[in-house]
Amino acid sequence: MSLKDPNWFYEKMPDDGTAFGLRIEATLLDEQTPYQHLQVFQTQGFGKFMVLDGCTMVTERDNFLYHEMMSHPALFSHPHPKNVVIIGGGDCGTLREVLKHDCVENAWQIEIDEAVTRAAEKFFPELCEANNDPRAHLQFEDGIAWINNAAPGSIDLIIVDSTDPVGPAEGLFQEPFYRACHKALGEHGLLIQQSESPLLHAQRVTWAMHDITRAAGFVDTKTLFFPQPIYPSGWWSATIAAKQTINFKRREAAEKKNFETVYYNAEIHTAAFAQPEFFKKRQAR
């Protein structure tokens, strides 16, 4: 089988010497937005599949893993999360999970590319079930500028649901952005951000996020881990940064959840924060 087979989509990662592929049955959307190349495919085994600039984003079959783990561990680690901001997240799956929490009073989704959300509404309507919730505020603008203009201490949780740290998302992985997040967050404020593959990208992304967020003023950081078949290596992570020392393992809160999930539960909440040995050794330096 050739990597040039038109019946397959491959995301190639030359620096890591790896590739991931899905068999394509049909192209449903192919357009150049003002910001990126947006594609939606019908696949043989993973349902509908969204791609941005050649990178895998979301499929019908496995999106619940990412969306649940980007939202519930952080929401159940904050004592009173009322105001939540999602930077990126244009497919709206994270927004849907956030609004399963009755305590959330406002959830702003700040997505720079409106075309991504419109494509999600058409091809992934199940991810957009909460878009009309009165607590949801969809805004199509630059997330960095939005955070810079946020009132100090006005946000409880910031979820950075972005693409990889290149192109439009590069600034979301840098110290000035984290400093702006720190200022916008309240006393118990948390930030969670996807932090790439702990197997392939630990040194240049995951570990770097710990150092940069702490340099920006956060006092506590922790990476959590979860499977994600369509992303490089199939093993993914998110890193939480907190304004004060916090108990990330509030299992009792997760045990009392009053909504349905596919992957996340109290046992997963606890297990996801267990640190692999090579992470523990690095943090001990």
| Strand line-up of the largest beta sheet | 8-7-6-9-10-12-11
Query: Roughly how many Å apart are the termini?
Result: 45 Å
Give the biggest sheet. Answer: 7 strands, mixed
Order of helices and strands: EEEEEHEHEHEHEHEHEEHHH
Structural class category? alpha/beta
Helix content: 25-40%
Strand content: 25-35%
Number of helical regions: 9
What is the typical, i.e. mean, pLDDT?
A: 92
Based on CA inertia axes, which overall geometry fits? globular
- Total strand count, please? 12
Radius of gyration: 18 Å
> Regions with pLDDT < 50 over 5+ consecutive residues?
none
Quaternary structure annotation: single chain
Descriptive key words:
285 residues; alpha/beta; seven-stranded mixed sheet; five-stranded antiparallel sheet; 9 helices; 28% helix; globular
List the helices and strands and how they pair.
Layout lengths: L7 E6 L4 E15 L4 E7 L4 E5 L2 E5 L3 H13 L7 E6 L4 H6 L7 E5 L3 H10 L12 E4 L3 H7 L5 E7 L13 H10 E10 L7 H14 L4 E8 L7 E8 L8 H5 L10 H7 L4 H7 L2
Parallel strand pairs: 6-7, 6-9, 7-8, 9-10
Antiparallel strand pairs: 1-2, 2-3, 3-4, 4-5, 10-12, 11-12
What's this, in brief?
This protein is an alpha/beta fold and 285 residues long.
Structural overview:
The chain has helices at 63-75, 93-98, 114-123, 143-149, 175-184, 202-215, 251-255, 266-272, 277-283; strands at residues 8-13, 18-32, 37-43, 48-52, 55-59, 83-88, 106-110, 136-139, 155-161, 185-194, 220-227, 235-242. It is of the alpha/beta class and 285 residues long. The chain has a seven-stranded mixed β-sheet with strand order 8-7-6-9-10-12-11, with helices on both faces. A five-stranded antiparallel β-sheet has the order 1-2-3-4-5. The mean pLDDT is 92.
